[in-house]
Design a protein that fits this description.
binds fe (ii) ion; mainly alpha
Length: about 160
């Protein structure tokens, strides 16, 4: 059964909720590729998941800095996943003609568990601080107007 984002998984910010929804969709795609034994789709899906997770982690650091939150434990957990994904993407890129049994056996449950734990255990710690700001708050960079629009765009996606 597909993993579904529900309201209780909201961490109180449009951009972070949007990214979590997106990561959940990608975990479902990886699982589908494994279930249908589609090797090329699996490679693309895991690589995309890795890239989006990297971006998401970088964004979370920005939020933590803007809200003055300690983020050391989060970063350790992020680095662990990034190493694992980098290794797997490397293996899939090199061994193009073999089906990676360990990915098939391990990844669907591993990614589901990781993502739910990431949202409910790690990111929920930021929720009280995030809720002191507007739901579309986005601390992303130099251009405040662009950042505000990014937050609203995420909000629109969430309403779809
Ligand atoms: Fe997150």
């Amino acid at each position: 059964m597909a993993l579904i984002w529900r309201k209780h998984l909201s961490v109180g910010n449009a951009m972070l909720d949007f990214e979590h929804k997106s990561l959940i969709g990608m975990v479902n795609s990886i699982e589908y590729a494994i279930n249908t034994k589609n090797r090329s789709t699996l490679f693309v899906a895991i690589k995309l998941f890795k890239d989006r997770a990297d971006t998401h982690f970088a964004n979370e650091v920005r939020f933590a800095q803007a809200l003055n939150l300690s983020f050391t434990q989060h970063e350790l957990a992020h680095q662990h996943l990034q190493k694992e994904l980098l290794h797997t993407v490397g293996q899939l890129a090199v061994k193009v003609n073999t089906w990676p049994e360990y990915v098939m056996d391990y990844y669907p449950q591993f990614l589901r568990d990781w993502l739910i734990e990431h949202i409910t255990d790690e990111d929920m710690l930021m929720k009280p601080a995030l809720q002191t700001r507007d739901y579309t708050f986005w601390p992303g960079g130099k251009d405040d107007e662009t950042n505000h629009i990014a937050g609203h765009t995420a909000n629109l996606y969430l309403q779809l």
